[in-house]
Amino acid sequence: MKKRIIAVLLTGVMMLSLAGCGGKTESSAGETKDGVSTESTETVELKLGHPLGPGTSQHIYLEKWAEAVAEASNGKYQITIYPSSQFGEARELVESLSNGIYNIGWVDSSTMDFLVPEANMLYLAFFFEDYAQLWSAIDGNTGAKLTEITEEKANIHLLSAFSLGCREIFSNKEIVDLSSLKNLKFRVPELDMWINTFKTLGMNPTPVAWSELYTALASGIVDGACANWETIALQQMYTEAPYIWESNHFFQTGFPAFNLEFWNSLSEEDQQMFTETCLEIAAEQRANVEELDGEYKEEILNNGGNILARNDFADIDEVIETYQNGLWKDMVAQADAQELYEIMCTDTGKNP
Predict the structure, then answer these.
(1) Which of 22, 113, 167, 214 is 20 to 30 Å apart from 10, CA to CA?
(2) Tens of pLDDT along 270-303?
(3) CA–CA separation, 258 vs 165, rounded Å?
(4) % pLDDT > 90, the chain
């Protein structure tokens, strides 16, 4: 009787040990590597958490990727997507993925600099002129080098980047040239990179919590801020700050990604499957964001907003030259990222 009780208890322990954030749910005979079965008949459940809402383009297309993976793998891999920071905020997600707490995850490129300082090169203000230039770099040698660095420093393998939109400057004062930006009280988060970015334009960076921005605009505490088109439109920022410069100063990206040890445990065939399905879905997601951007801009114009195209800003060449000879160099040196910076310049046709 005792033996039977012990056997039951041991069975329960073994079943619990199979539960987790990336494990097999159907067992069969076969070797395993780092807890991942090498048998093609295994069903492997993967749980991917991200900080964005369930209605966002990023979540919707992560769900589409999960469906594509299930189909391409004939049901071997089942990815469940958990939105709204259920597994932690953006930085926590990167740290947990790096440490192997999760086998799969979401990496916001703006929150990975604590492990990969070179990632801040994607946030050199005004470096990328448009989406086409951004993607040519990220899908080219720039992305390949960043993936290599991220594997080495963070123990994370990046897949194809999703778009989180680009940030535009909006103000309650007309924006046409550098003189119109001088001393503009501009809302920023309390982060050095942001403060230095807008000081370079002669603005007066003013830390204000995002939740207080609308009131701060209405009361004159600040004159302007920046956000992507979705936020400007849906939160109706244009009602208090109707002058919008399509500056494209920051392009924001996020990556579906794997813990490197888990990734290396996969067969080449499975690695190729994850890579190719993500590449296809990421391309669709990027196109979706650009389509939505167009709809948001039309909504803003129809409701009294004014939009100045990036290159219609009178001093755009001076702006870029000022950053290239100042803040870009400082950020490159701080991140020890000269090699990556030079690759970025090559990918985008710039002189380092």
Answers:
(1) 22
(2) 999 999 999 999 999 999 999 999 999 999 999 9
(3) 23
(4) 88
In a shared domain, residues 152 and 201 = no
Torsion, Cα 138 141 144 146, to 10 degrees, reads -70
Amino acid at 63: E
CATH number of 313's domain = 3.40.190.170
Q: Are residues 337 and 222 in the same domain?
A: yes
Q: Is 140 in the same domain as 227? A: no
**Cα 160 from chain centroid?**
11
E strands within 5-138? 22-26, 32-33, 36-37, 43-49, 77-82, 104-108
Report H helices in 49-175.
57-72, 90-98, 131-138, 141-154
d(CA 54, CA 50): 10
Q: How far apart are CA 122 and CA 137, in angstroms?
A: 10
Alpha-carbon radius of gyration of the chain = 23
The answer for 331, left when phi > 0, alpha when psi is -120 to 50, beta otherwise, is: alpha
Considering only the C-alpha atoms of the chain, give the largest distance between any 2 of them, rounded to a whole number of Å: 87
Q: Following CA atoms 284, 287, 289, 290 in sequence, which dihedral angle do they give, to the nearest 10 degrees?
A: 180
Q: Low-confidence residues of the chain, pLDDT below 70?
A: 1-41
Alpha-carbon distance of 99 to 93, in angstroms, equals 10
Compute the distance between CA of residue 258 and CA of residue 63 in angstroms, rounded to an integer.
16
333 C-beta neighbours (distance < 10 Å), count: 11
